[in-house]
Amino acid sequence: MKRLMCIGLLMMALGGCASNTSDENRQIHIGVSVYDEYDTFISELTQYFYSYATQDGRNITVEIYSAEKSQLTQNSQVQGMIADACDVICVNLVDRTAPSKIIDMARNSNTPVIFFNRELVSEDLLRWKKLYYVGADAYQSGQLQGESAAAYLREHPEADRNGDNMIQYFVLEGEAGHQDAIIRSESSVDKILEEGIVLEKEGYAIADWSRTQAQTQVALLIKENRNVELILANNDDMALGAIDAYRNANIKKEDRPAIFGIDGTEVGLEAVLSRELDGTVFNDMKGQAEAMFALAKALSLGEPLDGLGLIDNKYIRLPYEAISLDNIDKYLEE
Ligand code: GAL
Known about the structure:
Shape: elongated
Structural class: alpha/beta
Strand order of the largest sheet: 1-3-2-4-5-6-12
Mean pLDDT: 93
Strand content: 15-25%
Largest sheet: 7 strands, mixed
Number of helices: 11
Oligomer: single chain
Distance between the termini: 33 Å
Bound molecules: beta-D-galactopyranose
Helix content: 25-40%
């Protein structure tokens, strides 16, 4: 089991999960398991979570583990965190369709679980009252991406390189079966069509949120000399992989398709600033980390959950925001 970092003043001799006291000085012990430490967005979110915990001023210990894309590993990490008497466990599921083992262990030990980013189906979340989800609305991110792309295409008629009054587009999809991949792809395209732009699908490739996989896929498109005028990537890393492929092929920006991402990661923002990426959508990693931390703290201390923005006592969803050169300063300052 790979531990990423451990913070806190003291690892107390912990004798079971927190009871419902709100003793101001009681130590809080939070466990976190992420699906993959190399995922750019998740690593930014985790760093924010870590900062909120360190800056809180209370005696907080956070254990963060990477499941290295194995659900079995993640299950045993959760088992270990329960044995370590974590007050609450935050889980970024490897397989969003397989949370059962974790839910059973949590319920048997009375340890609340905050799932985040990789959304389990509501039937699973309803299986026990102390299960929560923090994330965002995938549909909204696709709509915002589509809206930005449509605005760009209207302002840049030259984007229709072959002048056929249609935009040939290619989609770089995240993991198969991930809510943010399926829904983003659909709602982005729907929005562009709704804005009156005629689209023709040139193809798609699953690139698992990965910059290198996206680069390989787009290098193939370039090699095959396919006419692609727009690339919609489900996240910034894949959009950056597409840019890498064009750069490696010595294709200048003005000869590349318009490229859009989602996340607003540091590297994504830099690419918007350098005008290589035509737009992205802010996936509020800071807000999600803050909401997760506030919820984890309240659950650990047995405090009421009112005022934390919970929907149906279960969900916290942070809004997405479109990012372009016009408003990027706000995000660079974050
Ligand atoms: C998405 C994010 C991706 C990737 C994925 C992992 O919300 O946009 O970049 O981090 O989550 O589950």
